[in-house]
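Consider this one:
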Amino acid sequence: MTKKIEAIIREEALDAVKDALHAIGIVGMNVIEVRGHGRQGGIELSWRGTSYHMDLIPKIQISIVLSDHNVEKTVDAIVQAARTGKEGDGIIFIYPVDDVVRIRTGERGHDALTYPGDIDERRAVGQGKMK
């Protein structure tokens, strides 16, 4: 089975999260600039002596599709890299994915997700399944 991880994180955490994901072998991801708010409902800002409420805060959304057995390691990497312990650190959603098709080759399922040097190849080498 395949899963999709969507992580909404602080903008300033992006580089640390990308580095953490690359370190574990995640080679494919999409990064989208988004705006929104969670429980905090936004933030109060002051500019030139005037306060105003900003309810849609700039965030980054990272989307990754990967094998089930890589989900926990990937989630742990994101949490460790993005956590400040303060409100607004973000949230991670995990969804099932029915199928994946690589347009260029027509590969489907797990084969469409595998890249040289990725997390699945590293796992196979660690288990003695590849050279």
Summary: The helical segments are 14-24, 71-82, 110-113, 119-126.
